[in-house]
Design goal:
Belongs to the peptidase C56 family. HSP31-like subfamily. It contains eight helices and ten strands. By secondary structure, it is α/β, with parallel strands linked by helices. About 50% of the residues are buried. The mean pLDDT is about 95.
């Protein structure tokens, strides 16, 4: 139970060619962080480029966001995120990919993050993601050559939700569609409803409303290890 948890956040700050800013979604970091931090876990942060990642969904009226943002230790950690090459994989019992639209541009094709994820999983650890975070899972292959998500129940930001925010033609791919192409058994609820899926140490959540639930499911899974 003493091993740390690695949170992955995006380095990407623009929604395609729209000029609109994006980044990691603050509530999708703070809500799982609160659950796991209170349970005594130490959390580290990594981003594709390292350093200070862009933030989206910046709402300090949410008390959990405020607690995270004003925690000097964790604010310093996220603002100085590790590069994938700096991660000591054996230190972590779980990995969590936070969402925010930026994840759609720099998670899927990052081979270093994919390798870290596969190794944590094959070491018996927990892999988790919420909203657009499962973009980090689409190209993860295990040592048997199969995709991590193949044959597993998986959940993520749905095609309907992407259409509802009018970004279905802006994002480089539709997350639900590509996960299904990779063999995932995709589950979903109605728009903006909390939905958390757990299958074989892989935990995924549909949208920002699912972030705390993903944290709780990760904690429950870690207690079994």
């Amino acid at each position: 139970m003493n091993k740390k948890i690695l949170f992955v956040v995006t380095s990407h700050d623009k929604k395609g060619n729209t000029g609109e800013p994006t980044g990691y979604y603050l509530g999708e970091v703070s809500h799982p962080w609160e659950v796991l931090h209170k349970a005594g876990f130490e959390i580290d942060f990594v981003s594709p480029k390292g350093g200070k990642p862009p933030v989206d969904g910046f709402n300090l009226d949410d008390p959990t966001n405020k607690d995270f943002w004003e925690n000097t230790v964790y604010r310093n950690k996220i603002d100085n995120s590790l590069k994938p090459s700096e991660v000591k994989i054996e230190d972590y019992s779980a990995i969590f990919f936070a969402g925010g639209h930026g994840a759609m541009w720099d998670f899927a094709d990052n081979t270093e993050l994919a390798d870290i994820t596969a190794t944590i999983y094959e070491n018996g650890g927990v892999v988790s993601a919420v909203c657009h975070g499962p973009a980090g899972l689409v190209n993860v292959k295990l040592s048997n050559g199969k995709y991590l998500v193949d044959g597993k129940k998986i959940n993520a930001f749905t095609n309907e939700e992407e259409t509802a925010v009018k970004l279905e033609n802006v994002v480089p791919f539709l997350l639900e569609s590509i996960l299904m192409e990779r063999g995932a058994k995709f589950e979903k609820s109605a728009l903006w409803q909390p939905h958390v899926t757990v299958d074989q140490r892989v935990i995924t959540g549909q949208n920002p409303q699912s972030a705390k639930g993903v944290g709780e499911a990760v904690l429950a899974e870690l207690k079994k290890l």
